[in-house]
């Protein structure tokens, strides 16, 4: 899969172009020499920015240093892969003239940086481009007290799902990948407001390397989530098909994290219809598609519980946040890799094991298990701390 938010690389490229003519079928060639630079400020590799600039300068501008070992690919080149040396230099001696694609890869990059570049024969002028890396969009929703439905935690308006949302929001503030982070709680989290926020992020996203993380804690049911203004009628709920329709406008990957009873039903592929009319708004395959990863607090027919304390925070969300903030989830599980990046699979395995231990220790609690659906088995980065 893809991505890093935030890494800026300054690529200075000087084009040395030479033509070649074939009488029968003319094909022209040029060459490309360049230098890859990164910001020289401390921590640039971990925080960085998100642009790549290609220019004619063979020396780094103020504030930049060469990046050694970057992998540079160029379509149309006889040898399409080169690696930068200690000076950040790469060189493609023979490249087919015309529009080609140049990419820059590096271990600390969460995504490949990519742009189109025009190779011109007999044209010594440099070409400047800006490449933008994928950035993260985070939307956190928590609803405890509803307009028409009973409160989830009646004795504490700020408890339950709102407390969950506050925990998750604080955790997401710690990731270096975010571009957009928004929290909606209580009366602000109406159906229209939630869908509009997703639409706003979709319009702001500029690349398929961008990614969206959506967290919801509140009333959930078989193939739906309940916004603040839900009243028990289907047109006031956000159904799985409606949610997917909103997400489908986003160009990159979408990670959906749901905390509520039966929340795993949003991606279990199990057809369920509320009445014989078989409403088209219920789509059992809505989120079970290639671009989605779903982590739910509960399996399709399980409840969801909170700790019996003052805030009544969710068991699932507590361990989800703990895995991120403690960094214990990084590298967790059979397929985990400790690299400063926490994937959906790593956090899911961590939460699953912690919840299993909790219910084994306190058998009087109503047990439920988290659920995950992902085409790529959860190998989707959602959090970066270094």
Can you give a write-up of this model?
- The protein has 386 residues and is of the alpha+beta class.
- It folds into two domains: 9-132, Sandwich (Immunoglobulin-like), CATH 2.60.40.1120; 136-384, 3-Layer(aba) Sandwich (Rossmann fold).
- Helices cover 16% and strands 28% of the residues.
- The chain contains five helices and 21 strands.
- It has helices spanning 161-172, 191-204, 240-247, 315-325, 344-361, and strands at residues 9-14, 29-39, 51-55, 64-66, 71-74, 81-83, 89-96, 98-105, 113-119, 129-132, 136-142, 178-185, 211-217, 220-221, 224-225, 238-239, 253-259, 292-296, 341-343, 371-374, 381-384.
- The strands form five sheets. Strands 1, 2, 3, 4, 7 and 10 form a six-stranded mixed beta sheet that branches. It has a six-stranded mixed beta sheet with strand order 12-11-13-17-18-20, with helices on both faces.
- Helix 1 (161-172) packs parallel to helix 4 (315-325) and helix 4 (315-325) packs across helix 5 (344-361).
- The model is unreliable at 1-25 and 46-50 (pLDDT under 50).
In N-to-C order, the SSE pattern is EEEEEEEEEEEHEHEEEEHEEHEHEE
Low-confidence stretches: 1-25, 46-50
- The helix tally amounts to 5
How large is the share of residues in beta strands? Answer: 25-35%
Under the CATH scheme, which class of the largest domain?
Alpha Beta
Topology:
Elements: E1 9-14, E2 29-39, E3 51-55, E4 64-66, E5 71-74, E6 81-83, E7 89-96, E8 98-105, E9 113-119, E10 129-132, E11 136-142, H1 161-172, E12 178-185, H2 191-204, E13 211-217, E14 220-221, E15 224-225, E16 238-239, H3 240-247, E17 253-259, E18 292-296, H4 315-325, E19 341-343, H5 344-361, E20 371-374, E21 381-384
Parallel strand pairs: 1-3, 11-12, 11-13, 13-17, 17-18
Antiparallel strand pairs: 1-2, 2-4, 2-7, 3-10, 5-6, 5-8, 8-9, 14-15, 15-16, 18-20, 19-21
Helix pairs in contact: 1-4, 4-5
């Amino acid at each position: 899969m893809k991505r890093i938010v935030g890494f800026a690389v300054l690529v200075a490229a000087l084009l040395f172009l030479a033509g070649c003519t074939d009488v029968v079928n003319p094909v022209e060639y040029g060459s490309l020499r360049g230098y890859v630079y990164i910001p020289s400020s401390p921590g640039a590799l971990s925080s960085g920015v998100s642009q790549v600039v290609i220019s004619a300068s063979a020396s780094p501008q103020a504030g930049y240093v060469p990046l050694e070992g970057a992998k540079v690919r160029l379509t149309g080149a006889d040898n399409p892969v080169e690696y930068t040396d200690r000076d950040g230099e790469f060189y493609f001696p023979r490249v087919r003239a015309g529009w080609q694609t140049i990419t820059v890869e590096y271990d600390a990059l969460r995504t490949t940086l990519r742009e189109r570049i025009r190779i011109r024969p007999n044209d010594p002028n440099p070409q400047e481009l800006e490449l933008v890396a994928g950035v993260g969009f985070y939307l956190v929703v928590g609803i405890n007290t509803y307009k028409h439905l009973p409160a989830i935690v009646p004795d504490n308006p700020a408890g339950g799902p709102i407390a969950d949302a506050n925990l998750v929001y604080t955790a997401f503030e710690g990731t270096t990948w975010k571009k957009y982070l928004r929290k909606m709680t209580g009366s602000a989290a109406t159906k229209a407001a939630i869908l509009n926020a997703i639409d706003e992020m979709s319009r702001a996203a500029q690349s398929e390397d961008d990614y969206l993380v959506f967290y919801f804690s509140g009333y959930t049911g078989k193939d739906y989530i309940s916004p603040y203004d839900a009243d028990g009628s289907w047109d006031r709920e956000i159904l799985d098909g409606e949610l997917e329709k909103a997400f489908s406008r986003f160009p990159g990957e979408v990670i959906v994290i749901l905390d509520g009873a039966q929340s795993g039903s949003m991606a279990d592929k199990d057809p369920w219809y509320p009445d014989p009319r078989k409403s088209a708004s219920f789509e059992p395959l809505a989120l079970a598609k290639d671009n989605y990863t779903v982590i739910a607090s509960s399996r399709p027919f399980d409840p969801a519980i909170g700790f019996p304390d003052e805030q009544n925070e969710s068991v699932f969300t507590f361990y989800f946040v703990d895995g991120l903030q403690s960094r214990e989830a990084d590298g967790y599980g059979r397929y985990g890799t400790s690299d400063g990046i926490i994937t959906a699979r790593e956090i899911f395995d961590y939460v699953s094991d912690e919840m299993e231990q909790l219910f084994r220790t306190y058998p009087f609690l109503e047990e439920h298990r988290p659920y995950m659906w992902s085409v790529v088995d959860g190998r989707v980065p959602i959090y970066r701390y270094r």
